[in-house]
């Protein structure tokens, strides 16, 4: 049985105009926003996705910094989407939206060249099923269907295995690695990757785990 508070939050989420929650059938069959996200945002500004956005910490921080760009957090967890969407309303952030769906279905949600860049922040490293990693060749082929030429994919993780795997995928796929570091907070990097600390990032840093970061472009 779903707790009453969670039921109330789910009901409230359904009223948020900046949250999209398609059913399985809707996302797979002529999803009405595919290729038409400019209408959702009310402008043609660049769109950045955060995959597995959780409570939307990164999505919201980027949206605050760049009010003339659009940001869309993607997650399947309704409680997390509620928190991110609620914060956007409370803080008056208008250039942000949330899409509740499985990332496995992501290619059905966007049209060709519709997305400018992608952030993947602390994803499940999938130690047993590499094919399900969000930086696997399977997922990169999905992103290629909607990412603009030259669009940048960012990865932040504490997981060394996932990070090294991603470097191998980039190399073997002849993609374009722009930069990488095995210890972000002991590097000289100072840009959007340092913008905010997510919930999980704070936990990993408290445990003394170095944060890895890379960015690349698809070939």
How would the blueprint of this fold be written?
Layout: H1 4-13, E1 19-20, H2 24-28, H3 37-41, E2 47-51, H4 57-65, E3 70-75, H5 78-90, E4 96-100, E5 115-121, H6 137-144, E6 147-157, H7 160-172, E7 176-181, H8 199-206, E8 212-217
Parallel strand pairs: 1-4, 2-3, 2-5, 3-4, 5-6
Antiparallel strand pairs: 6-8, 7-8
User: What order do the strands of the largest sheet run in, or round the barrel if closed?
Assistant: 1-4-3-2-5-6-8-7
Number of self-contained structural domains: 1
How much of the sequence is in beta strands?
15-25%
Order of helices and strands: HEHHEHEHEEHEHEHE
Number of helices: 8
Mean pLDDT over the residues: 95
Description:
The protein has 219 residues and is of the alpha/beta class. It has a single domain, classed as Rossmann fold. 32% of the residues lie in helices and 22% in strands. The chain is built from eight helices and eight strands. The chain has an eight-stranded mixed β-sheet, with helices on both faces. α1 crosses α5. The longest helix has 13 residues.
Quick synopsis:
The chain has 8 helices and 8 strands. By secondary structure, it is α/β, with parallel strands linked by helices.
